[in-house]
Amino acid sequence: DIQMTQSPSSLSASVGDRVTITCRASQGISNHLSWYQEKPGKAPKLLIYETSTLQSGVSSRFSGSGYGTEFTLTISSLQSEDVATYYCQKYNSAPLTFGGGTKVEIK
Amino acid sequence: QVQLQQSGPGLLKPSQTLYLTCDISGDSISSVTATWNWVRQSPSRGLEWLGRTYYRSRSKWKTDYADSVKARIIVSPDTSNNQFSLQLNSLTPEDTAMYYCAKERDWAGFDSWGQGTLVTVSS
User: Fold this and answer.
1) How far apart are CA A37 and CA A55, in angstroms?
2) Of the candidates B46, B34, B19, B44, which has an alpha carbon nearest to the alpha carbon of residue B119?
3) Are B25 and B114 in contact (CB under 8 A)?
4) For A28, phi and psi rounded to 5 degrees?
5) Are the CB atoms for B90 and B112 separated by under 8 Å?
6) What is the pLDDT along chain B (123 residues), one digit of tens a residue?
7) Count of beta carbons in the 10 Å neighbourhood of residue B25
8) How does DSSP assign chain A, residue by residue?
9) What's CA A83's distance to the chain center, in Å?
């Protein structure tokens, strides 16, 4: 099975900073990757699918890029409401594996 | 607007079986452009995809499962009630987690989620 590895596992940045999270697949998955934001006590929220397509209603601060085995999620200007854990997920075929998560905090 | 409503018990003992159901409104369980999934979240393991069921007109109903639970999980559709269910056998404390049902739009991520069910496995 394809493994999904996220880095870093956690980060601390200042409001207004540009934040980048990386997700690596152990084998190529084309562009079949999505990103989720998870906040305590809430269901995960879909941010981006198909590597770079922004889900309806999601802030344009979020963007995604990549192809094959390496992908990134970028928050262009970190805001306090972006404090959360972020997960990537492959969906080219089962199993639909999630990455290990990246916890984002405000410095 | 698709809404998913979960139901099922929250406290179980080791070796027991977990049954959760997910009622669908705003879409059909038999949609050929959706898959119906179960995901769990725990502090130690993060988000973990467990399995899915979906309908495709040629191949009828299909299921896929995560290797970690493949030997003891069943995800099944209920077309009469427009819902799907999760059965997880031989529970251990390691199965303690928040469980979610979720809909995947065709090749477009999990865009609808249930409210979550906190399942605790303890003697």
Assistant:
1) 12
2) B19
3) no
4) -65, 140
5) no
6) 899 999 999 899 999 999 999 999 999 999 999 999 999 999 999 999 999 999 988 768 999 999 999 999 999 999 999 999 999 999 999 999 999 999 998 888 999 999 999 999 999
7) 11
8) ---EEEE-SEEEE-TT--EEEEEEESS--TT-EEEEEE-TTS--EEEEETTTEEPTT--TTEEEEEETTEEEEEESS--GGG-EEEEEEE-SSSS--B---EEEEE-
9) 13
Spatial CB neighbours of A40, under 8 Å, sequence gap ≥ 6: none
Handedness of CA B105, B107, B108, B112 (dihedral sign): positive
Nearest CA-CA distance, residue B113 and chain A, Å: 7
Mutation for testing the A interface, residue in B4, B5, B37, B49 having most A CBs under 10 Å: B49
- Residues in a beta bridge with B98: B41, B118
Minimal Cα–Cα distance from B81 to chain A, Å? 24
What single letter denotes the amino acid at residue A45? K
Length of chain B: 123
B67 has a chain A CB within 8 A of its CB: yes
Decide if B21 touches A, using CB distance below 8 A.
no
